[in-house]
Amino acid sequence: MGNSAGLPPIYADKPIELAPAQIITSFPVNTFLENLAIAPNGTIFVSNHEVGKIVRITPDGNQQIHATVEGKVSGLAFTTNGGLVATGWNADSIPVVSLVTSHGTVETLLTLPDAIFLNGITPLSDTQYLTADSYRGAIWLIDIAQRRGSIWLEHPLLARSNSENVTPAANGLKRFGDFLYVSNTEKMLLLRIPVDSTDKPGEPEIFVEQTNIDDFAFDVEGNLYGATHIYNSVVRIASDRTTTIIAQAESGVIGSTAVAFGQGESDRTAIYVVTNGGMFLPPPTGVVPANVVRLEVGKAGYPLT
Predict the structure, then answer these.
(1) In sequence order, which residues have a C-beta less than 8 Å from that of residue 260 and are 6 or more positions away?
(2) Domains, the chain, ordered by start
(3) pLDDT digit string, tens, across residues 198-243
(4) Biggest alpha carbon–alpha carbon distance for the chain
(5) Tell me: the pLDDT tens digits for 219-228?
(6) Would you give the end-to-end CA distance of the chain in angstroms?
């Protein structure tokens, strides 16, 4: 894989098995697509981070603004009634969790002045969600029924090694079985945290070292599909911790930020990837349009709840 930016060559010796790729739709250069959530009918909801927009994309690539948040929007997750929970900042740069109805109406669920950088979000139960705080080095528990947020876990493994580094630490997070997996992008770690029968965390442990994962998704067999962001690729990390590169720059995934499985009958064995076109670390060609890319991976996704 081309690496002209002097990055650690962490994927240089990994096998490459490129999955069939199709660009579904593109956004203008310097669009920071941060996260996505896919509805059962195939509609893709994407967070356009820096302008506070949630964009609704049909399976054939038609884009429409679904909702506007006053501030910035990062992570997206569905509610049980087809709405969305979104993390981000409000217009005063205070971390905020918003509720977005299926019609696109936005309501502030709660502000979290003690948080710093709310990022990925994933359901823990019907009304409870976990969201990574990339700069505090913590995971917050968000209860949308009680409209309350509290620290679920704060731990050095979730934090940055250097608070001057703008790279997010705890970033993406998803549950698989009795574990919550969390990417610490700044430390290039994939972590896993035991979750007990009362949904409380155990001690985090390092699952994979030297991997630059932003957001990710699991298939039913426990393979993890991760967006590598500045490495301009998508990787599959098997349950035995081995890594295979399944998409590269030529697949359209420059600046890959997040991954989600399709939900429809014809789509369950595909993942969708959103990108920022290399805004953080431009390729030699310069920043390119931000894409939504479909990759056929041949495995079905693991349910999020």
Answers:
(1) 36, 37, 38, 44, 217, 271, 272, 301
(2) 21-296 (2.120.10.30)
(3) 999 999 999 999 999 999 999 999 999 999 999 999 999 999 999 9
(4) 50
(5) 999 999 999 9
(6) 35
Q: How far is CA 188 from CA 58, 142, 182, 213, 217, in A?
A: 34, 26, 11, 7, 17
Output phi, psi for 51, to 5 deg. Answer: -105, 5
Q: Model-level pTM greater than 0.70? A: yes
14 φ, ψ (degrees, to nearest 5): -85, 145
pLDDT band at residue 4 under the 50/70/90 scheme: low
Give the residues across from 21 on adjacent strands: 295
For the beta carbon of residue 75, count every other beta carbon within 10 angstroms: 29
What's the token pair of residue 207? Answer: 């699952």
> What residues pair up with 49 in beta bridges, in sequence order?
none
The C-alpha R_g of the chain, in whole angstroms, comes to 17
Q: pLDDT tens-digit profile of 134-189?
A: 999 999 999 999 999 999 999 999 999 999 999 999 999 999 999 999 999 999 99
